[in-house]
Amino acid sequence: MSEYILETQHLVMQFGGLIATNDVSIRCREHEIVGLIGANGAGKTTLFNMISGQLKPKSGKVIFKGNEIQGSSPHQACRMGIGRTHQIVQPFADLTVLENVMVGALLKHASVAVAREKAEAILEQVGLTPRRDVKGGDLNLPELKRMELARALATEPELLLLDEVMAGLNPTDCQGVVELILRIRDSGMSIILIEHVMKAVMSLSDHLYVLNQGCLISQGSVEEVTNDPAVIASYLGEKKSAET
Ligand SMILES: Nc1ncnc2c1ncn2[C@@H]1O[C@H](COP(=O)(O)OP(=O)(O)OP(=O)(O)O)[C@@H](O)[C@H]1O
Ligand SMILES: [Mg+2]
Questions:
Q1: One-character DSSP codes across 60-115
Q2: For a substitution probing ligand 1, which of 14, 22, 45, 210 has the most ligand atoms within 8 Å of its CB?
Q3: What domain range includes position 45?
Q4: Is 239's C-beta closer than 6 angstroms to any atom of ligand 1?
């Protein structure tokens, strides 16, 4: 058995004339937090979509726990143990927060009572218990991001794919989510994290990959990647000047 819970091998995705991911191979060890960074349009979400079954790769492999799963449906990937959040959060606006999370739990548990119990425990874990009876459509952004995380956790994943769960949050809310992600990892999960909030991704990642225009241009420890001239030229330099 491989020491990696997830491996992608040479993944290619093409939309018409655009090659959105080009020969992308990444790996995530058990209980590791892997960061995935890169400019807008680099292909990060597309890579997640191929891992979680939303997109079928043109070529290449997705290997989860030693089995090839590329081309599985989202439902199958979820049942196998791959949970994800979406960059654009789309809650069931008319369902309560608790019900939104129960929808995730019902994928694994046929009993509504059990799903409710699981959902309640997860709301406690993400700090949303006081908001459990509020409608999904009435949450503010930080709450919405936590509910999205809760919905993914409710599917009881072994591998969690987080697509910009900190986008739009203020530094205090970001720090809260960073601590939550560390607790989730410590509970035994493996995590791949797409994030533009550099402070967060630097503090969380055991290993980093950098995508640029569909291609992996760098990988390694946070220190290695942040000192890589190719990464500074294509991404970090640009971010730095945007921040000042
Ligand atoms: N379903 C689709 N049909 C056509 N083109 C798409 C589709 N999904 C993504 N693309 C294109 O593929 C490229 C990669 O998009 P992707 O969403 O993966 O980027 P990203 O790295 O997640 O960017 P961001 O940081 O802005 O979220 C972009 O040029 C995008 O416009
Ligand atoms: Mg994206």
A1: EEEEETTEE-TT--HHHHHHHTEEE--SS----TTSBHHHHHHHHHTTT-S-HHHH
A2: 45
A3: 4-81+158-243
A4: no
